[in-house]
Amino acid sequence: MNLDKAQSLQLVSEISNGLGQLSSDTQVVVSPPYINIPYIMDASARDKQIIVAAQNMHQAEDGAYTGEISADMLKGAGVHTVILGHSERREYFNEDAHLLTKKVEQALEHSLEVIFCFGEKLEDRKSENHFNVVEYQLKDSLFHLKQSDWKHIVLAYEPVWAIGTGETASPEQAQEMHAFIRNLISEQYDDDLANDVSILYGGSVKPSNANEIFSKPDVDGGLIGGASLKAEDFLAIVNAI
């Protein structure tokens, strides 16, 4: 919940102007608040390298859900990617595996690409229960999907304990969890799918640590928080991919 219309347009303009020619396997995604999406869609249409995603969507097709946004509404605005299960949605809006399963299914039914977020809290990490928490979050919301559905899924691991807490996750800890996630997918489906799925890291990535994090073999990109609000920082992170 940051930036008004003018600020959002300025940020995307600076990002667009600062982007060089991206490699064919690199995507840049911006996710403005709902109210700014149409303006950012218009601005990004001139730059085919920037994808616009929504921060969330409702699980129902339509109905008496005042203030909510449906998959069809997003598609009508030209949006084809949505973030689901973000740690703040889980924490502040009590989104659980049951609800997120419905949201994922609704998004896929409307051919939206899903950036699915998950990750453990500090108490889970300290009690060494972090692998179990991540396994539960993935299995309960995603592992019922057909293998073909996964071409529309991007995973985003968020160690909640390393976001704005003063705690720091090391690149080695990121790699350890990403490798664990890839192994879970391999066991549930197969090695080909496990190797193909993109797994982003969302634990306070910034210019100073991006190179080291992205150098890890199972880290395919980043879900960027505060650093995405400054074009210079965000561009530095993109260039580290």
Plain-language structure description:
The chain has helices at residues 5-18, 37-44, 71-76, 87-92, 97-109, 122-126, 130-141, 171-188, 191-196, 207-214, 231-240; strands spanning 28-30, 50-52, 81-84, 113-118, 153-157, 199-201, 221-222. It has 241 residues and is an alpha/beta fold. It has a single domain (61-240), classed as Aldolase class I (TIM Barrel, Alpha-Beta Barrel), CATH 3.20.20.70. The chain has a five-stranded parallel beta sheet with strand order 3-4-5-6-7, covered by helices on one side. A two-stranded parallel sheet has the order 1-2. α1 (5-18) packs parallel to α2, α1 packs parallel to α11 and α8 (171-188) crosses α10 (207-214). It is globular, with a radius of gyration of 17 Å. It starts with a helix and ends with a helix. The relative contact order is 0.11.
Quick summary:
With 241 residues, this protein is an alpha/beta fold. The protein has helices at 5-18, 37-44, 71-76, 87-92, 97-109, 122-126, 130-141, 171-188, 191-196, 207-214, 231-240, and strands at 28-30, 50-52, 81-84, 113-118, 153-157, 199-201, 221-222. The longest helix is centred in the C-terminal third of the chain and has 18 residues, at 171-188.
Mean pLDDT: 94
User: Which percent range describes the beta-strand content?
Assistant: 5-15%
Task: Give me the side-by-side strand order of the main sheet.
Answer: 3-4-5-6-7
What is the approximate shape?
globular
Q: In CATH, what is the homologous superfamily?
A: Aldolase class I
Radius of gyration: 17 Å
What is the architecture at the second tier of CATH?
Alpha-Beta Barrel
Count of the domains: 1
Main beta-sheet strand count, sense and barrel state: 5 strands, parallel
From N to C, what is the helix and strand string? HEHEHEHHEHHEHHEHEH
End-to-end distance: 26 Å
Secondary-structure class: alpha/beta
Helix content percent band: 40-55%
Number of strands: 7
- Number of contiguous helices: 11
